[in-house]
Amino acid sequence: MPPKQQKSKAEKAAAALSGGKGRKKKWSKGKTKDKLNNAVLFNEQTYEKLRKEVLLLASICFKAVKLLRYPLTNLLRPLLFLSVSAFAALLLDKQLHNLKRRALFYL
């Protein structure tokens, strides 16, 4: 094997500058979350959807409809639910139309 040739200082500097800076390894791709298009006001479609879903379900996940604080406390609650207890972030109600299950609402 022939001996290795020594590089000059200029060649070493040129080789160091020619390569781009390596990027840091990214281990996780990261989960992307879909942006929600939250409505601010009720229109007829969302209000009717709310009324139908409240009548069907014993408990409702509030991620589906983000506008539930006002209609539950003021419009629908006196008609559909009997209040059991209320705290700052939790309302515990019984449904009036069948009374077989308690509905748990997180606001």
Automatic annotation (TrEMBL):
PANTHER family: 40S RIBOSOMAL PROTEIN S25 (PTHR12850). Belongs to the eukaryotic ribosomal protein eS25 family. This is 40S ribosomal protein S25. GO terms for cellular component: ribonucleoprotein complex; ribosome. It holds the Pfam family Ribosomal_S25. InterPro entries: Ribosomal_eS25. Gene3D superfamilies: 3.30.63.20. The chain crosses the membrane at residues 75-92. Residues 21-30 have a biased composition (Basic residues). Residues 1-31 are annotated as: Disordered. Coiled coil: none annotated. Keywords: Membrane, Ribonucleoprotein, Ribosomal protein, Transmembrane, Transmembrane helix.
